[in-house]
Amino acid sequence: MDEKTIDSIFSGSLKSLPPVSSKIVRIFTSSTFTDTTMERNTLMAQCYPKLKDYCREKHGLEFQVVDMRWGVRDEATDDHMTTELCMREIENCQRLSMGPNFVVFLGQKYGYRPIPTYVLSSELEMLRMELESQGMDVNVLDTWYKKDSNAVPPTSVLQPISSILKNFNNKRIPKLQQEDQAIWWDTMTKMQKLFRKGAQSLYNSGKFDKDTMHNYFMSVTEREVINGILNVKNTKNHCLAYVRYINNINLQNLRKAGLFLDILNRSLDNEASRLLADLRDERLPNKIESVNLQRYTVEWIGREGLDPETHGAYLQHFITHFYRNIVKLVDRAMRKEDSSAQGQIITEILQHLHACNNSVKVFYGREDTLERIKAYMLDEGEKPLVLYGEGGCGKTSLLAKSAGLTHTTWLVGKKPISIIRFLGTTPDSSALTPTLISICQQISYNFMLPFEDIPDDLVPLTAHFKHLLTLASPEQPILLFLDSVDQLTGTQGNKLSWLPTRLPHNCKMILSCAAEETNPTISRDYHLLRRMIDTEDSFIEVTALGEDLAMDVIRMWMKTAHRDLNNYQWRLVANAIAKCSLPIFVKLVFAEICRWRSYTKPADTHLASTVMDSIMMLFERIEKQHGRILVFHALAYITAAKSGLSESELEDLISLDDKVLDDVYQYHLPPVRRIPPLLWTRIRNDLPNYLSEREADGVSVMNWYHRQFRDTAKERYFKNMNMAMYFHSMIADYYLGIWGGGKPKPFKYTEIQRHRFNLTDKEGIADRKVPEQPLAFYSKEGKLSRYNLRKFGELPYHLVRARRFKDLFENVLFNYEWLHAKLSSCPLQAVLSDFEDACNNIDDQNLVRELMLVADALRLGGAILGNHPDMLAPQLVGRLLPEIGGNVNVKMLLMACDKDGAKDCALLPLYHCLHTPGGPLKYSLEGHQFAVFGFCLTSDFRYIVSISNRFITWDLSTSDMTRDVNPGIEGIMQQLVLSPDNRYAAAYTNNNQIVVLNTLTSEFVTISNPLPNEEPVYGVHLMNQYVFIFGRMGWCKFDLRGNLLGNHTTPEDSNQWQILHLEYTTLSEYRIIFWSGNLEDSAMLLHAYRSKGALDPFEFHSAMVMTSDKKTLYACSTKNDYRVTKYICEKSSSYWEKVCEMPRAHNDDVEYLLQLKLDRDEETLLGTSGNGFVVWFLESKSDAIVMMLPNGIRNISTRMMCSNSIMISGTKNYAVAGVRKNLYVWSLETSALVKVLDAHFARIIQLEPLTIGNWNSVITSSIDRSVKVWNINNIFEQVHVIDRHELQIDSISLAEHCNLAATVTRGCVGIWNLQSGRLISKLADSPLGAIVTHACITHNGKYIISTESGNVLIWNRITEQVLFKEEQPGVRQLTLIPETSKFLAVSRPSNPPGVESVRTTATLVVRNIPDGRTMFSLEYPVKSQTGVPFRQAVLTSDGANLVVPAADKGNRDCVIVYNAKTGVLVNRIPVKIPGLKDITSIVPMPHRAHWVGIIGSDKGSIMDINKKKIIRSVPKWSGNISKDGKHTLYAPSRGGLDLIELKKGTTVKTYIPKVAEGVFTVISMFNRTDDYVLYYHSGRKTIRVFRSSDCEMIANYRVQAELSAIDSTYDGKSIVLGTVDGCVSVLAIADPQKPEMKDYLLNLPSRDEQWKKKMEKQRAATKFKAAARIARVTHDLVHVVRKNNAFVEENDATDEEADQ
To answer: pTM score, two decimals?
Structure first.
């Protein structure tokens, strides 16, 4: 396609459109029938299935063969339509096929030469006269040809055979049938001779030209070759020809020879041979390329002549050649195909442009409506125009006509961009998101903008779309024509919120939408549009055509079709049109009357009076004509399909449907048990234009073009629910692939077949040649080539509707392989909608709960699964393990995750470590590094925008983080506001900066404090075009680019009143609230300004709230108490008028109010008081409902009129508030507090309701840096707690001999059970203000050594007591000494402030465990540099020596060696290594005790500490080392990972090639057994695991939060991760090559559903033991105290005695 054509398509021009590239390879095979049976059967059995697979797997194309000779029955000859059908099919193949479209097989037979079905009556008359003049009897022609005067010019029609010979099709009485058939063939031969004789003599006398004469001599095959090859321009890419010559045909056996030659009167038919030779040997080779023509010569052998056994070699060569050539032509066509994003969008636009052209072709009338549309197109209006009316009223054609006229006549001289979409007719125009993306792509192309800027997410996408419309200019206006907006799917909440209700200049939009008074569901979107676009002029009702216009249209159409009717027939049409003149009805009437001949009997000319009845009649007629069962099933399959069926899918389905095959093959046995393609072709041919072709899942499918057809088909075929389930079930079986890939399907022979063919068996079995249906297709090399999108799209839909839930669960929704494949190829929403569909159709609530668990787990993992579908197994396992008991299907899925998921990601969680759905917490949204001081919901409730020192946006439907913008400010943002159109957000920070963010493009502007005298900023306010920044004494107005537009000062005396709040509706309507500025005085003042002037100032105190129209307010205005009063101010009024006092709360005389709020619908007034909350229901005028907080818990005010908020649940039965760290839930019925939820780790800052549609939720943000979404419906459900620390984990220490680990956070040491994921205890010596820096756990798990606030402690882990404590400030290293009960602690003082580098002394102390006795201590000089990590002392591999990095007198690096047992100095070695500036660390060499590695910044050296010399340098060595001491890993922070051999320093293996990703923190290490290499990348947040043996990556694990500590377990089976959110997760390395890992996972406690109960028992036992221990300690204490007391008393007594 050239540049010019592409430009023209993108501009939406309807001129000279190229054809749409289809997804089909469709080949017409032309041949004579009897002499090519062997070849055709072989192709059908051996070649076509392979080609089908090849096209489908390699290119995603459908492969179809049209063989009109196969399975042709006598009925087909009855109406003489075969030849015409063949020609139409050739045209279809040429139009649709990608690559090859016509293959001809020619032998030595010219073939069947039929007599014409239609003859011009004038031509027939000439022939009659000529023949009569020669004395021939022409009665036979008069009997069989009838003149049809309805044709223009009149045409004579050959009558159906059975209309004259009644038994021609009577299979029930074979004898009568044979008689009639013999008569027919005899009669036909007579007519043939007459025609040829007449034509020849008319040609001789010059009255016929050669072609007219040849028409009467030509065979069907020649006609096919003319249309398929001889008249074709480009045969090279589309046509193949095979010519076969048989030597020595035995003419003795005439019956056999007659199959291969044309025989006439027991000898060769020379005329036929001459015509064939001319075609085969002259015209064909002259036209077709020699590479596309293949000749064969074979011998005649035996009685049969040709037989697969005797001619095996020939057949083999033939099918191989055929296969290769077809493949070559398909590949060639696909190479030209543009499969880029641009190519796909071109296909999409073209489909709509062609549809538009087709609609325009038949358009007629409606001039006045078109005038109105023209006026709209040329005026300055800014609203969209809506065409509405009932289904079938012609909205689509009117819209198409307008699009056509705009381009050609209305906007001449301009270059409009026309965006034409017939919504719902292509897969990319059926759902909103892809539709908007394709529209944005089309606009972007015209303005040369990159496609990459188009967001995928609906809200930013909608905004981007609206932004693109502003690019329209007078020369290049943007015109949108969107048909059937009500057909769009895939939107939540307000379905039409994406529509711009005000269009920018030079932009016009015409929509069409269905509206039927009697059908409120269909009209829903129309009523929505009425509310959104409130001007009457913007709506045009499209009504029925009316009788006169409808009759004019029919006459026009008839004229174009060269048809007419007789008077009686015209009267019938007029009567029908009088009852209904809808265009769809007119179209159906036209299609029916086109079939009427002038001689049709009145009984056969009947018209219905409604659309549905007309369609019913059409179906009935087709059923009569083609067999009821065949038509019923074929149309039912199309109707049942979710998004239509392709031709080959339909043929496959019918070929699997024995009800149909039994009917079709009642009387004979087919060579292949499949439906003959011709049968469906004939049916489709009788449904012209009623089945539309569109693309779905990358395949071209057929579907009903209009809703009315679908409804009628459902009404007719699915009345009986069991029938509907039968079809859904059959389609489900097909996509399950039960009979695919050569698996034969059994069937029962019919009685007639058994009788006719003397069959003894009742049952047969036959391969139906249908393809297999894997989840994905792989190339020969085993590489994934494509996914089976058709299966993903259709299978779940049909299993649900066939109510085959067991199959649905096992194969789809709880099947790991399915979920993984579908997630890898489709958006998450497509997977989730399968679950939603199932839930809506299942009654068993337990099953629905299981489905919702999995769906919500996918939703929660959405952000990760979107980019890492391989993370499916770890995500599901990590979330759903607690639900394994009692949920059979969830358990089945998790077992599959363990078994099959390991091949996609070999890191699988040992226990529940991710948030589980189903409880009260729906999502926890993490990502902020600081407190979240504010968040807003977008107006469509789809997104949360939140602030800390950055802006983060989350998608509420999936919990994905969709935007993360760091504006690089110093402070923390305080208040967040969104503009009304949600395109901008603004906030101010605690150091008075203001940030304005474009939420779509993530561009931001930072404004420094603009207020005079550096006054602090009090707040910001946003309009769609302006931002206002206010302080105590005034405010500034800026545009959104940060330009100052004006300053305003306060209208009040700023000493008495300071500004508290400011908000604008328009530039002339705004409000200011003033406050005294004194915390003791809550008096406030409201100034409200309207376009007509200011209202009187309104005084109130404590709290006030206004409705969104700003006409009503509620406030505390009574002195000395806190009652709430309602005021209104009408448009004309200039002051606030008191309406009434709200019902009093019983304690409002003393209980002060801090805040008033209204809910979203303004039906509820919500008050926050000092000790609780008050709720007023405004609609029902109920009493004030007072809800008190528990004693000692109070609401505090964060600023005037702002405090903790409360919300009412969507079901109006609960109230929920966030106070301190908890959520409090009250019953509104009783005002009682019913639940307290531990919600956050720190104070809740903000709480907002989310109760819209089916959401019944509350959102909270907190100082703990998270935003959480809570599901109120599940508020009383069990919470599956994940243990975590409040602070990030700094390090992990593992015990070798038990499943325990010690973690360090700043506040405490945590002891974790690594098998259950439980945080067993937190150890801190001073519970308040402890600063913990290091901790180790001994290998038996009995003792913990930690450093806390300048002390070294030894703990007894079991009693949690401190056994030893000694001061050692500034500890930098704490290490257990292996194989001993000792540990070393190294301390070093911090640098004085402002000093970068200093030489100081480190102290190393070795102590004994558990008594803490000092074994020895020593001091050595070190270099201390600010910001450089402490360089650790190491033990040599034999444990004999301590090697420390130290500093010599000149502060240069040196190495000192001490005896590890006594601390005696052994050696002091200066480090003189060329190129090594500073030592970063020292590594003991595992295999040589006297060797250590000296590691620099990017190179290392091996040193012998005995000989004090360098052995060798290793260039790329960053410090880690394998157990055998032979290898190290090199992972520079710029990216890449290599395995280096230490002996030569060479790269042995590359795990990750060098990629420029920027500089990130990377961690690389061997696991403890050296079987695996682990690599963490902080930019990607992924841990990659490589198998050491073959370098294969077996896992790419995306961590939930930034990794802060990682270690490998001693057995090498797992890795332990600590993250910044305080969680510890243990992941098994479930290497698929290690089968024992499957058993390991299976036997974990978390995989045992009884485990919880066991744990609870164990906990009870532990509690009992603890109680016993406490009792014992108490008893001992009492004993000691008593003893002491007794001792004291004794002494007192002695003293008294002494006194006396």
So the answer is: 0.78
The two three-digit tokens of residue 1323, written as one number: 């150890």
Task: Kindly report the number of other CB atoms within 10 A of residue 1380's CB atom.
Answer: 14
How many Cβ atoms sit within 10 Å of the Cβ of residue 832? 18
Per-residue model confidence as pLDDT tens digits over 35-86? 888 998 899 888 988 998 898 888 888 888 888 776 555 566 777 878 888 8
In Å, how far are 249, 1373, 1429, 1678 from 1456, measured between CA atoms?
Answer: 104, 17, 19, 55
Could you report the per-residue pLDDT of 672-727, keeping only the tens digit for each? 888 887 788 778 878 877 888 777 777 778 888 888 899 999 999 998 888 899 99
Report the SS3 class of residue 110: coil
- Cβ neighbours of residue 161 closer than 8 Å, sequence gap 6 or more: 77, 78, 80, 168, 180, 184
Please list the helix, strand and coil fractions of the chain in percent, rounded to the nearest 5, in that order: 35, 30, 40
Tell me which residue of 321, 310, 339 sits closest to 58, measured CA to CA.
339
Angle between helices 816-825 and 789-801 (to 10 degrees): 130
Alpha-carbon distance 426 to 436, whole Å? Answer: 13
Distance CA 847, CA 851 (A): 6
How many other C-beta atoms are found inside a 10 Å radius of the C-beta of residue 1256? 19
CB 901 within 8 Å of CB 869: no
Question: Torsions phi, psi of 716, nearest 5?
Answer: -80, -40
CA angle 311-312-314, nearest 5°?
70
Confidence band of 100 (pLDDT split at 50, 70, 90): very high
Q: Alpha-carbon distance 525 to 532, whole Å?
A: 10
**Which residues lie across from 418 on neighbouring strands?**
479
Residue in 583, 582, 572, 580 with CA at minimum distance from that of residue 607: 572
1257-1262 sheet: strands from edge to edge: 921-925, 1267-1271, 1257-1262, 1244-1250
Residue 987's pLDDT is 95
Residue 1610: count other Cβ atoms within 10 Å of its Cβ.
15
Q: 1576 Cβ partners below 8 Å, 6+ apart?
A: 1562, 1563, 1564, 1582, 1583, 1584, 1603, 1606
Other Cβ atoms less than 10 A from the Cβ of 1636: the count is 8
Cα separation, 1158 vs 1148, in Å, equals 19
Distance CA 249, CA 657 (A): 42
C-alpha 48/C-alpha 1669 separation (Å) is 81
Rounded CA separation 943/462 (Å):
13
Pairing between β-strand 239-247 and β-strand 293-299 as defined by DSSP bridges: parallel
Burial of residue 1043, with CB atoms counted within 10 A of its CB: 0-12 exposed, 13-18 middle, 19 or more buried = exposed
Rounded CA-CA distance 1396/619 in Å is 91
Is residue 190 within 8 Å of 138, Cβ to Cβ? Answer: no
Which token pair is 1136?
Answer: 């606030």
Q: Calculate Rg over the CA atoms of the chain.
A: 43
Across the range 888-904, mean pLDDT stands at: 94
What would the pLDDT profile of 1493-1543 be if each residue is shown by its tens digit? 998 877 888 999 998 888 888 888 888 888 888 899 888 877 888 898 888
Pairwise CA distance, residues 242 & 104, whole Å: 6
- What separation in angstroms does the CA of 369 have from each of 372, 557, 838? 5, 21, 45
388: β partners: 513, 541
Cα–chain-centroid distance for residue 963?
18
d(CA 1512, CA 1542): 9
Under 8 Å between Cβ of 1153 and 1116: yes
The residue type found at 1415 is M
**Which tokens belong to 827?**
């958006």
Q: How far is CA 1019 from CA 209, 976, 1029, 1082, 1647, in A?
A: 93, 9, 6, 19, 53
